[in-house]
Amino acid sequence: MSASALSAELEIERLRALVEERDEWLAEINRIVATKVWHNINNPLAGIIGQARLLLSAEDLPAKYRERNETIEALAARLKEIV
């Protein structure tokens, strides 16, 4: 193998290592961002679902408001599944 071919091969290997390192770095950033987003969306949704369930537990809640709270609870639960 000539010196230039060996040099080119070494450069290719160096570039592959850099790409692999970058991919690992991007994957870690993606994981951190996804966790942060999930946490920041999941917590308020849990509060919304909890408050809707609390209202639904009231025996004297008018049917109109019961239906609205059931809708709120269902939509919040759907968002929680997506996240």
Structure description:
With 83 residues, this protein is mainly α. 89% of the residues lie in helices and 0% in strands. It has two helices and no strands. α1 packs antiparallel against α2. The N and C termini lie far apart (54 Å). The mean pLDDT is 92.
List keywords for this structure.
83 residues, mainly alpha, 0% strand
Brief digest:
The chain has 83 residues and is an all-alpha fold. It has helices at residues 3-56, 63-82. Helix 1 runs antiparallel to helix 2 (63-82).
Gyration radius, to the nearest Å?
26 Å
Structural class: mainly alpha
Q: In percent, how helical is the residue content?
A: over 70%
- Measured between the Cα atoms of the first and last residue, the distance is 54 Å
- Average predicted confidence as pLDDT: 92
- What about the largest sheet? none
Task: Please describe the topology of this protein.
Elements: H1 3-56, H2 63-82
Helix pairs in contact: 1-2
